[in-house]
Write a structure and sequence with these properties.
- The protein has helices at about 5-30, 35-45, 45-50, 55-80, 85-105, 105-115, 120, 130-145, 155-175, 185-200.
- By secondary structure, it is mainly α.
- It folds into two domains: about 1-55, Orthogonal Bundle (Arc Repressor Mutant, subunit A); about 60-205, Tetracycline Repressor, domain 2.
């Protein structure tokens, strides 16, 4: 390994350390209550060092969200490439989202549950991985509409409705781990089946596919 390669690796390691520290603090103390100085204190660096990697706190938040969505997109693209029916793809994308949230709760909380100003992210949304992640869901929903599995509804609205339902069960499972869930995996399957049944053209088709497994 050359000295240049070593420096690049060290820089990337520090960048990741900053992201990890910021994510933890945003979850523990709230986005609005965390300053760049507070993040610097957590990793024993000066605020100036953080500004070498990120423009400001909003930039940090954006890259934390991008990190989250990149993981979702990577798996989502594999699901869309599978040779299976579009309804199964919708359910598998939904399950992938839920299982990601349960596996990486802090990533999920910062991206979807910690309150922050939407204005700080919306200007970058169109070219973001977050937009790409939503388009994967929308694409599979559109295919369900085209093939007659879902009734003719606005695909954007239908995709948002599905996302809202999936977000609901994910947030509850993260926020209430001690709740006496009857059977968690079967509950997830039932939520996905019910959401798709609500959009189904033929109610019988909504349960035709096997429960989705990511």
């Amino acid at each position: 390994m050359t000295s240049r390669d070593r420096r690049e690796r060290e820089k990337e390691a520090l960048r990741q350390e900053i992201l990890d520290a910021a994510r933890d603090l945003f979850v523990q103390e709230g986005y609005e209550n965390v300053s760049m100085r507070r993040i610097a204190e957590k990793i024993d660096y000066s605020p100036t060092t953080i500004y070498l990697y990120f423009e400001d706190k909003a930039d940090l938040l954006f890259h934390i969200c991008e990190e989250t969505f990149t993981k979702l997109v990577t798996k989502g693209e594999k699901i869309l490439a599978e040779k299976t029916d579009p309804l199964t793809k919708v359910k598998r994308i939904g399950r992938n989202y839920i299982e990601f949230g349960l596996k990486h709760p802090n990533h999920y909380k910062v991206t979807f549950m910690v309150q922050h100003s939407h204005d700080e992210l919306k200007e970058r949304y169109e070219n973001s991985m977050g937009h790409r992640a939503f388009e994967l869901l929308r694409s599979s929903v559109e295919e369900c509409i085209k093939t007659g599995i879902f009734r003719k509804v606005d695909p954007g609205m239908a995709s948002q409705a599905l996302w809202a339902g999936v977000h609901g069960i994910t947030s509850l499972l993260i926020a209430k781990p001690l709740f006496p869930w009857v059977e968690k995996q079967k509950t997830i399957d039932l939520v996905l089946d019910s959401l798709c049944a609500g959009l189904s053209k033929d109610k019988k088709k909504s349960g035709a596919a096997k429960p989705a497994r990511a």
